Amino acid sequence: MDKEKNEKHLDELISHAINTEKPQFDAEKWKQKYPDEYQTLLSRAAKGDSARQPGILKVILKSPLTKIAAAAVIIIAVSFFSAHQDSSEQADTITVSKITKSPVEMMTAISLTIAYRKGGIEAVEEQCKQAFKPIGPRPRSLSIEQILTEFNGNSKTSERTEL
Amino acid sequence: MKTIKSRKITKAIFAVLVLFVSALSAFAYPPDNAAVLYYQACMLYEVDSEMNGMLNDLRSGRIEPNEEIKEFLKKNRRAIDFVLDASEVRHCDWGVDYSQGCEALMPPFYKFRQLSYLIVADARVLAKQGDYKTALGRCMSLYKMARHVNERTLISYLVGVALNAVANDCVIKILSDMPQDMETLTLLKGQLVRIDRLPFSVKPALRCEHEAGIISISLDRITDVVRGFDDGASKDKILERIRASDKQFFDRNREYWGKYMDAVQTAFDLPYPKAYSKLKVLSEKPSKEFSKNPNATFAAALAPGWHAVCSLSIRSGTDSNAVKSAIEIYLIKAKTDKLPDALPAGLPGDLFSGKDFEYEKTKDGFVLRCQSKDFLKDKIHQYEFKVKK
What we know:
The structure holds 2 protein chains of 2 kinds. By secondary structure, chain A is mostly helical. Chain A has helices spanning 3-17, 27-33, 35-46, 56-62, 64-83, 87-97, 103-106, 109-132, 144-162. Helices cover 73% and strands 0% of the residues of chain A. The longest helix of chain A has 24 residues, at 109-132. The radius of gyration of chain A is 31 Å and the shape is elongated. In chain B, helix 5 (77-88) packs across helix 7 (132-149), helix 8 runs parallel beside helix 16 and helix 13 packs antiparallel against helix 14 (272-289). The chains are: A mainly alpha, B mainly alpha. At the A-B interface, helix 1 and helix 8 of A face helix 6, helix 8 and helix 12 of B.
């Protein structure tokens, strides 16, 4: 099944199932509910901008020399940060966001019921298939020689460990 | 003294007999648990997507049995035999730990429908060779397998429904291909009566869902359950509520779920049109209440679309009733050499309307039509049966 289509369908299902809209701010209601806070806010606004100290951004923007210096600092900081970031760390971040469920989690009753809700019996089968995939291909037959070889190999390993 | 001695000897003989009998039964084949054999069939059976597609085409009548399919059946004879032997075993225990609630691990469901396609392929090949009795016997095995699969959970019920559908479809195709033979038809009728004695109902699944929810909605278990949910806004919100939760939060959610499931179970007993509309409302209820009512948190996440489950359940029963009614019509054809002009009285009917099927003779055979719509599919189902001249 198309993954994108699935995800889109899932998003629709979720937004249909649960109201995920951002809460709307009702200023009039807020004024009525908190009159004291509203008055404090009004009195602060009445003091005006003149009372405020000039910001650091204003100081930088006024002088061309400080502009160049600030730009240089930003460039150095960005290149230093990206050079020292480990590539494995970057990969980990991606893995974490795309982390898949373990086979055990995929085979639970609730997980399969959710799969059914999304895509019917085919989705259940696909999920089961994915859960069993990590087990990998099984040998068609297993001879006594193979078992003995494996056993001897393991015994040697354990002997070495003991030594 | 003598009596004491003879009692001891009797006890010893009895003990030896018990040991002998139990040793014999321990090594008997088939074992007394069908699941052991189904698991073996699942492990043995490997099919690539190309062959599975071919088997699906054969099942749906798009292709006829060919040499490649026959060869594939030969290679997988052991897997077929395991399924057939398993279906004859009365007891089936999949070894599912239901005390885990919603976290109970399920059997390898994905292999079941693949195995059912394999069995249907075998049935179609047998029918092509003129061995209709054995071919229909394969379908009976699928009906029994569906009953074995439907152990307790909702998902196992749904997989069982899918297997039933495959079996019904196969019986319809074989009935349409075979000559109207009294003996085979009577045998089939008797087999279906026996299969009906084995329960296949959605009720145990509903009870199980009820209990599983009660088990899982607890501080100890819920984080494992939520981990299984798909990432997204709903999961984040649930986790947020769990973080801020206390004991009462779980108590109230369990109480909500209990009442909710009582209402769902009651609705399933209503006639289909009422049940569908009531269950549709119930399916949407927890989701609608989720944002404002924290007690509906887990019901919103756990409840499936009950109206869909209800429609599938009614469809499954109606399919089976159509097959049973058709057998009666074929029997009349076998007796009188002609199809009846009207539907005989007392036949199992269409569960969507609660009425008899509409019966219509056609050029090739006859059609059984439902009298009410399947609201989920938004269509009126009909079943076409051909009569071999």
